[in-house]
Write a structure and sequence with these properties.
By secondary structure, this protein is an alpha/beta fold. It folds into two domains: 181 residues, Aspartate Aminotransferase, domain 1, CATH 3.90.1150.10; 234 residues, Aspartate Aminotransferase, domain 2, CATH 3.40.640.10. It has 13 helices and 16 strands. A hairpin with a 2-residue loop joins strand 13 and strand 14. Helix 4 packs across helix 10. The structure holds pyridoxal-5'-phosphate (PLP). Pyridoxal-5'-phosphate binds next to helix 5.
């Protein structure tokens, strides 16, 4: 999409209106598809997060680190399917593994050759894993972990955090979501050391689990402080509460996940996203004393079924990904690339006195539309107009990212791609600096 030279607007509102007008004009095929879809799916969508105004792009193809839309535009993929797209769209090791698995049948109805191999690779990598079980999504992984914690402790409550997202039925962006699973939840504030400690102690007798992301992903790429994590480990140990790390996103941030990087090892960990090689995936695991309860040979074993828990395509792609592609060395290199990109983007905002900031760690980052300190999601309320302008203008400059400023890196992105991204942000700030500073 060509960029018009001077598009300076007097107000934020007029800038947003202009950006939306150009977006609508540039994307007639995407719009037509959404209109057809509206007849058969609520709002034309089957995935809430993918909706944005005026309508989302229809993606027809992914190649390497690029996405191609229905109107022929090509984008650098800085969304990376919300971290699931780590391997990009054409990794040969992943594609070969899937093709090989396809040739031997895909719904076999028995244990296959891949599942224990993927389990072994994960148990070697992630320090909290003695044993692991697979499922089909991060949501399901958390559901299983929370139910397991309740079963092994005989207690009912789960302590979670305001602003957290652990799946479609565990969302706490503005308090508990209306579609949340009916767990008895105690909500604390992320990084609030004293307040959370007091809540744990007050509910200790009833708490089955304390669960959190060691860096909030969807909540705004907000890292947990080391003292906060250490306090959670100490209090949960003292009160025999299961500490669950949701590493659905953060497991990519170091070879052994953020648990390895922070040195705080939970009792259980949940996984999802890229670990299935880009196919549908979830997993939960942890210490023997919890996971042994799923041993079906033992009387009174906990049940955990799921037709597709060991689906061969995911298992095969996951094995190839961890063994051949996302090696410990690759994990470290990707995190370093993400750290460099975040520093460059923050420098752009500071040099141009645009009061935005990028938070995050390694390859998971989020642009925030103010420059005040952020320790918890409540410190970063939505700024819908700024978010709309930023996203639509990045799309216009060939950069695909989420409306809320969420950015992840996939492996095939290059330094030249990052240069393009930084240049696009510089141009955005140069065009709109005056209204962004207001
Ligand atoms: N947990 C976290 C931290 C997530 O970010 C997500 C999804 O974005 C989930 C759980 C749910 O995973 P899924 O979408 O695979 O159900």
């Amino acid at each position: 999409m060509p960029i018009e030279p001077a598009r300076r607007n007097a107000t934020l509102q007029s800038a947003v209106e202009d950006a939306e007008r150009r977006y609508v004009a540039a994307n007639p095929n995407s719009r037509a598809r959404v209109e057809r879809a509206e007849a058969v799916m609520p709002g034309g969508s089957t995935r809430t997060i993918l909706h944005f105004s005026p309508f989302p792009l229809t993606i027809v193809k992914g190649v390497g680190a690029t996405l191609h839309d229905a109107d022929g535009h090509v984008y650098l993929d800085y969304l990376g399917e919300y971290t699931a797209g780590l391997y990009g769209h054409s990794n040969p090791a992943i594609l070969n593994a899937v093709r090989t698995a396809l040739d031997s049948g895909i719904t076999l109805g028995g244990p296959n050759l891949y599942e224990a191999e993927l389990a072994a690779l994960m148990c070697q990598r992630f320090p909290s894993l003695d044993l692991v079980r697979f499922c089909n999504s991060g949501t399901e992984a958390n559901l299983n972990a929370f139910c397991a914690a309740r079963a092994v402790t005989g207690r009912g409550k789960i302590l979670l955090f305001n602003g957290a997202y652990h799946g479609g039925c565990f969302t706490f962006a503005n308090g508990p979501g209306a579609m949340n699973a009916p767990f008895d939840v105690v909500l604390a504030d992320y990084n609030d050391l004293d307040g959370t400690r007091a809540l744990i102690r007050a509910h200790a007798e009833d708490l089955a689990a304390v669960a959190l992301e060691p860096m909030m992903g969807a909540g705004g790429a907000i890292p947990a402080g080391p003292e906060f994590l250490a306090m959670l480990r100490e209090e949960t140990e003292r009160h025999r509460i299961v500490l669950v790390f949701d590493e659905v996103m953060t497991s990519r941030l170091a070879p052994g996940g953020l648990q390895e990087a922070t040195g705080v090892i939970p009792d259980m960990t949940t996984f999802g996203k890229y670990l299935g090689g880009g196919l549908t995936f979830g997993a939960f695991g942890g210490r023997h004393w919890i996971m042994d309860r799923f041993d079906a040979r033992k009387p009174g074993a906990l049940g955990h079924s799921g037709t597709y828990n060991n689906n061969v395509l995911t298992m095969a792609a996951g094995v190839a990904g961890l063994r051949e592609v996302f090696t410990p060395k690759a994990a470290i290199a990707l995190s370093e690339a993400g750290d460099r990109l975040r520093a460059r983007l923050n420098a752009v905002f500071q040099e141009r006195r645009v009061p935005f900031q990028v938070m995050g760690r390694g390859s998971i980052n989020c642009v925030h539309f103010h420059d005040r300190p952020i320790r918890r999601p409540q410190d970063a309320p939505a700024r819908p107009e700024l978010q709309t302008l930023f996203q639509l203008e990045m799309i216009e400059r060939g950069i695909y990212l989420a409306r809320r400023g969420f950015i992840t890196l996939c492996l095939p992105l290059t330094e030249a791609d990052h240069d393009r991204f930084v240049a696009a942000v510089e141009d955005f700030c140069d065009v709109h600096g005056a209204i962004l500073r207001q």
